[in-house]
Every structure is written in structure tokens, then in C-alpha cells.
Amino acid sequence: MREPEDAAARRALAPVICYPNETLPEPPLALYRAARTGARKVAEAVAPPREACTFEVPAGHFFRITSVDGPQVGDLNLWNAKDLGERFYSGKTRALHGTHLTTAERMWSGFPYLRPMATIVEDTLGWYGIDSYGGSVHDVIGTRCDPYTGNLLSGVDYHHCCHSNLTRALADHLGVSLREAEGHVHDVLNVFMCTGFTRETGQYFMKASPVRPGDYLEFFAEIDLIGALSACPGGDCSAEHTSDAAACYPLLVEVFEPARGALEGWEPPARNGYDGTHGR
Questions:
Q1: Residue 197, pLDDT score
Q2: SS in 3 state form for the chain?
Q3: What is the pLDDT of residues 13-70, one digit of tens each?
Q4: Mean per-residue pLDDT for 227-238?
Q5: Is residue 241 scored above 90 in pLDDT?
Q6: Residue 63 structural domain
Q7: Do residues 112 and 274 touch, judged by C-beta distance below 8 A?
Q8: Percentage of the chain with pLDDT > 90?
Q9: Is the preceding peptide bond at 112 cis, omega within 30 degrees of 0?
């Protein structure tokens, strides 16, 4: 196909940020961190290798995801514990913050709620930044490894991908069928995963995660949450993610309760203020 004469000029046009986020309400990190200092551990869960776990976090509590034993990435889903219809919206989170999340950025829920569900308060991989390949950690661009894409590309049925792991874990937590639980599983925050897009083809890539045992990502729960975390079958995702070939390790989830009065003046965020009339 022939390029138009003004092709270079068209390509040279400067980009415009779609959603300037300077007006987003800033999380009160100083308040959160002060509350975290005196918090006590009240619960924990472990996602075994190639499996998932669930956990609950009341509003105003903290939860921490930690790498233990070896480098491991995880796929995280969040729901409103009182209304499973409100769940993490990776696409809008990406539009508001960027392709990868770190400290002071938030996991937002979908329409019609569109409010912060959790705020990242600590990230021990925050030093990584963006590498020479364009890769970074904690992405909201990957969808989760799933058995349907695996079947499409290789013709096999693999049951320990993150989608299936999350489905089984949520079904057990809620006491419902796999079919019902699967309808609630959604696109994830890829915790510790190092990803980006190739410059040549724009394809989604993964590379060995920089995570090491003891690294963690910690959140403040803005509303009552149910979480599900899958320890990805890809391990550190340095080679592949939908097989039993990679070395895999558990991920630890811990929940912390602040001391009484530590969050004085804080309230869970309200639902989005749009009136819902859609012009009618």
C-alpha cells in the first residue's frame, strides 16, 4: 500500500493524554501509613503453586501480597463483598493511571460505581520503573491466562491457568457452581508480573519478573472486599504461562486491622456521582 504524501506529517502529530488525572482525588497516604504502623495481623491466606486462594478485607483494613520461597507472579481479582456486581475494572484503571500500577495508585470498580476499591500504599518493586524493552511490573493490560485461549492456540485443555484457578476458588468461597462463579471472574491486576508491548508489532510480552522472596505489594481497602489471588502456572513468567513446566511458588496474603481511631475522619468512597439518566 502506498503511503500518502503527508504520511510523515501525520505520524509526527503529538499525542494527547486521553484522561488527564490531575483532578483525581489524591489518596491520603500519610493517614494510611500512620494507621498501618499500629495495625495488627488478623488473617492470612496462601495461594499454592498453580492454585488460587480467596480472602476478605473489611473497609479500612490493609492487605499485603508477598512472594515467598521463589519468584512468582499472581493474578488478582477484587469484588465488593456486599455486591459482587461491583468488581475491579482493569480497563478504566489503565486509562486513569497507565499500563502498570504502583504506590498511590488505585484499583477502580466498573460502571455504574466507578470508585476506588483499593489503594496501593507500598510497593517494594517500585524501583524497577520502565526498562529498556518497555517492560514494567504490576500490569493492568494482560487479561489472565485462561483455558479457552490455550485451547484455541494449542488444542489442549489446561485446568490450572489463572482463570480456572480463580473460578474454583471463588466457587468454593461462595458455595456456588463453577458456572456461576466463572461469570464473576474478570480481568486482573497482574501482581509482580513484568510486561509491556513490543515496539515492532505492538504485541503483549512478558519477561522474567524481578520479584524475589520478601517482596510485597500492599493495599488499603477502600470498601469491603472479597479478593481472589492465583499463583500463575508461569511462575516468574520468564518462558511460558499455561503449562506445568515452570517452577512455581506460593503467594502469601495477609490482612491487617488498624488500631481503633487510627483512621479518624476517613470514610469509604461514595459511588460515582453521575445521575444515570443517560440523557433521557
A1: 96
A2: CCCCCCHHHHHCCCCCCCCCCCCCCCCCHHHHHHHHHCCEEEEEEEECCCCEEEEEECCCCEEEEEECCCCCCEEEEEEECCEEEEEECHHHHHHHHCCECCCCCEEEECCCCCCEEEEEEEECCCCCCCCCCCCEEEECCCCCCCHHHHHHHHCCCCCCCHHHHHHHHHHHHHCCCHHHHHCCCCCCEEEEEEEEECCCCCCEEEECCCCCCCCEEEEEECCCEEEEEEECCCCCCCCCCCCCCCCCCCEEEEEEECCCCCCCCCCCCCCCCCCCCCCC
A3: 999 999 999 999 999 999 999 999 999 999 999 999 999 999 999 999 999 999 999 9
A4: 96
A5: no
A6: 39-257
A7: yes
A8: 96
A9: yes
Question: 154 CB contacts (<8 Å, ≥6 apart)?
Answer: none
Q: CA 259 to CA 107: how far, in whole Å?
A: 24
The number of domains in the chain is 1
Name the nearest CA neighbour of 197 among 243, 131, 107, 123: 131
In a domain, 34, yes or no: no
Closest to 236 in 3D by CA, of 10, 71, 119: 71
Q: Is 25 among the domain residues?
A: no
Residue 10: inside a domain? no
- Where does the pLDDT of residue 1 fall: very low under 50, low under 70, confident under 90, or very high at 90 and above? confident
Closest by CA position to 145, among listed 240, 73, 242: 242
- Determine how many CB atoms are found less than 10 A away from the CB of residue 63: 25
Residue 81 belongs to some domain of the structure = yes
Mean pLDDT of 222-250: 94
What is the Cα gyration radius of the chain?
A: 20
